[in-house]
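pipeline: protein-struct stage 2 | run 1193 | DNA primase/polymerase bifunctional N-terminal domain-containing protein
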Amino acid sequence: MIPLVEELLKQGYSLIPLKEEKPVIEWKKYQHKKATIKEIFSWFQEFGDINLGIVTGNISRLAVIVVNDKKQLPKLEEKIPDLWKTCRVRTPELGYQFYYELADGQEVRSCKELFGLKGVELKGFGSYVVAPEGYDIK
């Protein structure tokens, strides 16, 4: 897990501890400040076997399109022709996460049905995604 933590911190991401995709701490403050390496390692000591979440939005300069319904991919590709040209993660549920770097100061709000597509979410400010450890990263 240490190489993953180092890589995620190097990318500048704000991290939170998760168990089964749910935060095990009050995580909202990490939308505005990043956890220290000491805090992150204390989570492993306190909670044991955890996953890490990446807080999306300006704090991590990251927005993520999460596709849980693969049948929506052709419609999403119509809206975003360069969809497959970004960093993407194949999730265990056989969905996808498409990662987009935000410009400094750029804020993107989360949206449950991006472009009105059920099963397609935009994760921005006010949300998080499970870090891709163990996922198929392209």
